[in-house]
Amino acid sequence: MKLIEILKIALRALARNKLRSALTMLGIIIGVGAVIAMVGIGNGAQKEVQDRIAAMGTNLLYVSAGSVNKGGTRTGAGATQTLVASDVTAIVREAPAVANAAPSSSASTQLVYGNQNWATTVTGTEPQYFDIRAWDMARGASFTDDDVRTAANVAVIGDTVRQNLFGNANPVGQTIRAGNLPFTVVGVLTAKGTSGMGGDQDDGIYVPITTLQKKITGQDWLRNIMVSAKSQQESYAAQDQITQILRDRHRIRQGDPDDFTIRNLADVAELADQSAQVMTMLLASIAGVSLIVGGIGIMNIMLVSVTERTREIGVRVAIGATEQDVQRQFLLESVVLSLLGGAIGILVGIGSSVLITYVLHWSVSVSVLAVGASVIFSTAIGIAFGYYPARKAARLDPIEALRFE
Amino acid sequence: MTTMLAEQELAQQEVQEEYVAIRVQDVHRIYQLGENRVHALRGINLDIAKGEFVAIMGSSGSGKSTLMNILGCLDRPTSGDYFLDGVNVAQLAKKELAAIRNRRLGFVFQGFNLLARTTALENVELPTLYAKLEAEERFRRAKHALEIVGLGERFDHFPSQLSGGQQQRVAIARALVNQPSILLADEPTGNLDSRTSVEIMSILQTLNDEGLTIILVTHEPDIAQFARRVITFRDGKIRRDEMVTDRPRAAEVLAEMPTLEED
């Protein structure tokens, strides 16, 4: 029998039991819809993480003071005193892959303004720090190189600090107290929100590194150096160059461990990317389970249908249907069910993705790959779960089938 | 091997020369039902010529249905040969049997076996679908077959909208649509009242007059009388095989029958 005729028969058989066909399809619709929506949510989350990390700067490297071995006792990270201001200038001068570098050290402090106070972190750095982090001033300006040279009592404050100390008032030109020291606020940073690691980046104030070292901590070494590579691609080259420069400068012998650590944000980005991917896979596989359940639903209904239509099968065989004709008829029915369900499921999946974007404000991106895979997968389910019932129908003994009540 | 083929060819020629539609030679059919062996047919020999109208009678379990299934190529004999239009059907593959059922045989069942929610015309068209005919030809043939059984006007009715007699006529039209050489009717009047039964027999007699070979299974002697030849089965064997003398014409019987008040 011609395939198109078999298709017509299949469509009519399905149309005869509209409610049943619809309910059977619902399993596939939900399955495919869920896969598409879940993959969409996963991809959206992945993209958002990528965007945030990109906003932090994927070309950034954090050089931190490492541990040191003092007569067999190894200190924790950050205990070395070997990272100094001249390392920063050396890195900028000698490492070709490096665009810029800024020192940073920090301490905890209690800020006071009028009758408000706020505990936060005070970070000592140099003006280029804000360029490296691509961080703009909302008000005022950064402190200057002169301020660094003179260890001036000036500060740039983060948005969280501004909210807590000043409310809606303009902080620029006001004087705040950090511990016992008065600082004039010269600039307010734009709000950056939480970092990729979950910390509030806006909760802190920034002062010249010299001011911090001389007037607050009394230490002349650095905790961190923040470095920007010329591009994300060059960040690994920059990492190698910095390692070499610092090992030379710190006179670390061949084979001895570094007394500093370098964290490359490209690594972090990759890691975050990977974990987002794992999440997408997880969501997709949970949704995939519902697709398989939908497939079992199809098989169930096809088995019922074969039993119900035993006599019909007997008649068809008696008037000349071959086993292949009967098998194709039932197989096509289940493929039509699953494919139609898949098509509707795609629409439902895209629809719910759009809905999630508008209602929950999550970023959802529907992937063409997920749509394509759903079509292939639902067809495969139709064939896989329709095969056994169709085979059963084709193998029926026509004599028994004709006698079936 | 060559001698076997030669013999077979010879046999086929012989069969064709004699205008034999069906030749059954020493056919046995044994079912294995669990531990029991049921010997349903015990060596049947039967020749049916082209254009014959044979009624097969017998109580249930006599083997008449088993023979009918074998004649209809739905079952194969355990041993023995079955020549249909000169071809030894016992040796054919399933697919070839399907083609024979489709083109050379027409089936009429006791329970009509029409597809529900499918119009009379589409029911009749069904065998032409499996014959892979073009849509136009299918429609033409189905319409013609319905006209033969006197249902040309009701082609778009569903089985549920037709009386039992009309349904059986649709079934006969379906059996005729691929222009078979043999019509197999398994108790075609079993579900019908006596008047409608005679109507159906009248159609079968007309078809037979036009040259169609008909084999009819029935357990009603007065229905069997409409055939030309009656074969009686008992215990898997043919017990009687006789020609009908004084065959009544169904159309005449019908004219004499009292009409029921409603129909």
Describe this structure in words.
The complex is a heterodimer of chains A (405) and B (263). Chain A is α+β, with helices and mostly antiparallel strands and 405 residues long. Chain A has 2 domains: 3-52 and 271-403, no CATH class; 81-258, no CATH class. In chain A, 57% of the residues lie in helices and 18% in strands. In chain A, the strands form 2 sheets. Chain A has a 6-stranded mixed beta barrel with strand order 4-5-10-7-9-8. In chain A, helix 2 (18-56) packs across helix 11 and helix 3 (85-94) crosses helix 8 (235-249). Chain A is elongated and about 105 Å long. The model of chain A has no long low-confidence stretch (mean pLDDT 87). Chain B is of the alpha/beta class. Chain B has one domain (50-76, 92-256): Rossmann fold (3-Layer(aba) Sandwich), CATH 3.40.50. In chain B, 38% of the residues lie in helices and 26% in strands. Chain B has helices spanning 2-17, 64-71, 94-103, 120-130, 135-148, 164-176, 194-209, 221-224, 250-256; strands at 20-33, 36-49, 53-57, 79-84, 87-88, 105-108, 182-186, 213-217, 229-234, 237-243. In chain B, strands 6-7-8-3-9-10 form a 6-stranded mixed beta sheet, with helices on both faces. A 4-stranded antiparallel beta sheet of chain B has the order 2-1-4-5. In chain B, helix 4 packs parallel to helix 6 and helix 7 runs antiparallel to helix 9 (250-256). Chain A binds chain B through residues 1-2, 5, 12, 16, 311-312, 314-325, 398-399, 402, and chain B through 69, 72, 74-75, 94-95, 98-99, 101-103, 107, 109, 113, 115, 117-118, 126-127, 129-132, 174-175, 178.
